[in-house]
Amino acid sequence: MTNHWRNALQKTLKDDQYSTSVSELYRHSHDESDHTPVEPEIVCFPESTEDVLAIMKIAREASVPVTPFGSGSGLEGQSIPTMHGISLNFERMNQVVKFSPEDLLVTVQPGITRLQLNSIINRHGLQFPIDPGADATIGGMTATNASGTTAVRYGVMRDQIVDLEIVLADGTLLHTGTKAKKSSSGYHLTGLFTGSEGTLGIITEITLKLHGIPEHTIAASCTFETPHQCAEAAHMILLSGIPVQRMEFVDAYSIAKVNDYGNYGLPEKHSLFFEFAGMKSAAEEEAALAQELLTDMNCENWRIAADSEERASIWKARHEMAYAYRHQAGMTITGGDVCVPISKLPELIDYARELISDSGLQGGVLGHIGDGNFHTSIAYDAKDPKQQLAAETINEKLAYRAIELEGTCTGEHGVGLGKIKYQEAEHGAAVAIMKNMKQMLDPTNLLNPGKIFA
Amino acid sequence: MTNHWRNALQKTLKDDQYSTSVSELYRHSHDESDHTPVEPEIVCFPESTEDVLAIMKIAREASVPVTPFGSGSGLEGQSIPTMHGISLNFERMNQVVKFSPEDLLVTVQPGITRLQLNSIINRHGLQFPIDPGADATIGGMTATNASGTTAVRYGVMRDQIVDLEIVLADGTLLHTGTKAKKSSSGYHLTGLFTGSEGTLGIITEITLKLHGIPEHTIAASCTFETPHQCAEAAHMILLSGIPVQRMEFVDAYSIAKVNDYGNYGLPEKHSLFFEFAGMKSAAEEEAALAQELLTDMNCENWRIAADSEERASIWKARHEMAYAYRHQAGMTITGGDVCVPISKLPELIDYARELISDSGLQGGVLGHIGDGNFHTSIAYDAKDPKQQLAAETINEKLAYRAIELEGTCTGEHGVGLGKIKYQEAEHGAAVAIMKNMKQMLDPTNLLNPGKIFA
């Protein structure tokens, strides 16, 4: 029986379009999180929407689960094929289908990464600014509604998408939108499939809004004595109306970690990192006003990056913080991803630091403070069940507190496996509606089963 | 049988919370469009979510349709109770439930209008910028995913909403989101109910993002010889990256109409109207750069409003254009609402002017050119079937051409009654999914029946 669908796949695809090699099964068993790896039975490499339709047909007829795989940079296990079956790797569907600089639009296949995309469009003065840190695929970023450091200015993935091409479980191929910048026609399926983590349909094409590259960019940083002061300062910058392009918080512990990792020489204090961008005089005026406001709040170590090299170095350091934690021999990392109304941030960051201190574990707090979103990075020894429980407890308490504060258990990483347990607390009666939608679109639970819902 | 549910309503509500008076039935039979009026059997005025739940229970048990009503300023007949039953007027649910200036958030009941809301929040330096022209209710604007002149800067209604409270047909009360600025948790029900025109559930509370009032605002205008040149100029301004706050096109015909109506003394040529806003130096730099670019394209009559009074007068004129057309004795107005990728605009505007000229009718073309969205306003004598057919044919041809150009039949007015016929052409296979969602959430078709789908 099992051989039957594998044989069908092997007949349908070219020889190099599938693999059951040990190394490929391993590569597709995990992402960057600490969720338990599970291997697929086979990895397929579609090269077109037609390939996806053909694979889906075989999967449907044999009731075999299909789990999409982008770059494997997810943080909640979304691409782990929990119920085995087929891992659908999009690395060969990485083309620009249509680039329309005159419309500030680009249509891409899901396997293109954000850096690949930017390398093509930047020379036209355009950018795709969403930046989750990792060089994730656009498909993966769409599936998880990713965001990152620039969301404070440009919004999240969902805000960038005007149209998706989707393959449904029943083989229907559909478009969720048009190429118009806005529309009030029909139900908003684009927003629904975005962030659905491959559980409602398989994304085979994405049309994104593009943005001009600002004429001038200024990076700056400063430090405060406490995380609480950082959060209050960020809150005040937001209220001032300065349209920051990035505004990031990193606690002293995480700064020390990244200094060790990359020799950055940053002041080892609780820090805010800023980017101001726009026309030259506007960016300069914004930076000057921010400095004035932050100085009034007793910031220290205010520094404007001297040149584009130093600016790049600041953001490289910020992005490497996630990796700095991961490079501790013998330690596993678990991370939280809470997001709350901005006025609740000082309280929640204090609570996070308190939980980490009380646990006896080592960990940092850092994140996209301009959105009210921050992460914990907690290091634990996976061979020590007590440490593992302590690490999990920190994130659990933090998630429930975020929900109490009218926030969310996941600002940008998605639900995947790790945030399933908070869905009832966060969404209440809406969970039943979500489950009904899953049931309606995927009645036999073929599409990334085991994610979002238990 | 009929008396039974009416009696139940009358027992449940206070005496002044329902009406069957001739004037109320008439008021709730139409909106500002030319769609055929239909009267409800009764108008109810809920004062709380509990009232809505109670009314819905009675409606469900008696299988009576429920059609929400905001301010009656809709343009596609969404609030017309096509199948009679109950008109649910939200004018008494017009309170601010919670204003959190520190979080740049406000939670409101659906019956509050955008001007009522702004009068409360403006004094805190905050604004709710979405501006469809009419003083619509926030509930109505949410239900139709309205936008208007500021969408080019702030996005559409859907972009402003973090949470909705919804009463479903089966009596379930749910929240679609949280108060966090962003989230990747669960399916995006907020986006789905926004723009669903009361067909999937009844909106009883809306939480909106707020924006700071810019420090400085500059209004400007200029004229060109042809609509085509206006569209090309708008396209070029967008590509330049100047973050205009408003950018509107009005053809010469419509300028003449509004001059007649309000004595504005505007140059009777094809015109662009701009607003630049932000910190003072930034707004001035943007206006100067725009002037330079537009002058290179041979614009005429460049004028910056001398003071806030002249600025207000410009936007008052722009908003009154819709009404200027309506105030022609004996004439009915029908309007299109197409939206296409910005590079297709010059072609589509030319096509619209050509269709109007060929028809022998009088009509204007005007709209939110920065979004690729524009409207036609065609005057016809409703007593003359030939004229009516000619007017409808213009909008029909325009809508189909917009869809061919990868755009939408409705940029911001919604589907309602008038755009049903384009749903298959625009959405294809997705229409079946939308119908399934309607069937799932409202199996007995109680909620605003006859809208969006035939």
From TrEMBL, chains A, B:
GO terms for biological process: lactate catabolic process. This is D-lactate dehydrogenase (cytochrome). PANTHER family: D-LACTATE DEHYDROGENASE, D-LACTATE DEHYDROGENASE, MITOCHONDRIAL-RELATED. It comes from the Bacteria. Residues 35-213 form the FAD-binding PCMH-type domain. InterPro entries: FAD-bd_oxidored_4_C, FAD-bd_PCMH, FAD-bd_PCMH-like_sf, FAD-bd_PCMH_sub2, FAD-linked_Oxase-like_C, Oxid_FAD_bind_N, Vanillyl_alc_oxidase_C-sub2. Signal peptide: none annotated. Its EC number is 1.1.2.4. It is an enzyme of class 1 (oxidoreductase). It comes from Planococcus donghaensis. SUPFAM superfamilies: FAD-binding/transporter-associated domain-like, FAD-linked oxidases, C-terminal domain. Keywords: FAD, Flavoprotein, Oxidoreductase, Transit peptide. Its cofactor is FAD. GO terms for molecular function: D-lactate dehydrogenase (cytochrome) activity; D-lactate dehydrogenase (NAD+) activity; FAD binding. Pfam families: FAD-oxidase_C (PF02913), FAD_binding_4 (PF01565). PROSITE patterns: FAD_PCMH. Belongs to the FAD-binding oxidoreductase/transferase type 4 family. The keyword Ribonucleoprotein does not apply. The keyword Mitochondrion does not apply.
